[in-house]
Amino acid sequence: MAKKPFSFIGGNDDFLVGRAGKERFAAMTEGIEDDFGREVVDGYANNVAEVEGAVGQFAQAVQTFPMFGGTKAVWLKDVCFLADSVTGRAEGTLQQVEALKELLAGIDPDSVHVLITASPVDRRRSFPKWCEKNADFKWVAGAGQRDDPKAIEDLVRAECASWNVKIAPDALVMLIGKVDSNARLLVEEVRKLATYLGEESETIEEKHVAELVPNFGDGDFFEAAEAFFSQDLSWTLEALKRHFFAGLDARGLITTLQNRNRLLIQLRTLLDAGEIRPGYRGLDKASFEQAASAYREAFGGLDTKSPYNVFSQNLWYLGKLAEGARGLTLKRLITFQTEFIRAFEEILVRPNQQEEVMREMAIRCLGK
Description:
Strand order of the largest sheet: 2-3-4-1-5
Largest sheet: 5 strands, parallel
Strand content: 5-15%
């Protein structure tokens, strides 16, 4: 099989694409001792003029050989003008992309190793399609829950394997929730957890994530909500203690609890009625989509992500919610919602006793 003239790595997560590119370029430059034989060109461009500058610099790099001969490696890094953006759609950019295509087609892989990393990429365009056929092409799947649920789990497990540790299923779910599915944070938090374990243990447990990983983004109140709906009173009380020790407010926590409870009420109703069914890795996709089509009008056209519309949520996330809340009847979920309202009303009366109010609510709901 003929050697491909260049390598192309693309994806919609710039961190994952950049990391894959760094590994590929290290392999490409192995054995190249001359610093002039390794060149990195910045492909990030905010406008057509910067696109022209990046393509021009890249063309000069691949056509200029090392002073003392030998093979050269060139990396066109962080290309962003292949996206569906104002700059990406500009006529001047499209002309530069065509020029780049002609340049790449004439590359001699025995003389110069070329790597292009790009994010985000509109794969509907002709250039990415051409790269798939003519380059050593790699697509790096995004790691967000809304993009590819399995990819985020695979990313965490692969990172754990690189540190010679494992991660418990419950710890994996909590970690993803705490960092709000951010790939860069996932990698950094796995490194931190693995370093913390040292030689004492080979498995990251749920307790390690709860104690060591801070909350990010939409996961501000993740641990307390996760503890509550796991129906573990001791864990819930400990999570509340950490929540208020960090100076966080009760109202945001109540909102988080209510939002999750709203979704669980809808899920419980649909499951009890047989409208949706449990399936592999969570909920059955076919029955979920059928129910969504049947009840779409009941939500008044509310299609944006909202706890008021269970069908606007990610199916993988809903499966995790349903799995973690097994045994919760519809009656009990409605009782929870009533208790959340009661707690909110008590906070208005006792604003300086928020932790006590939330602890009392937890005991009423979860106490035996």
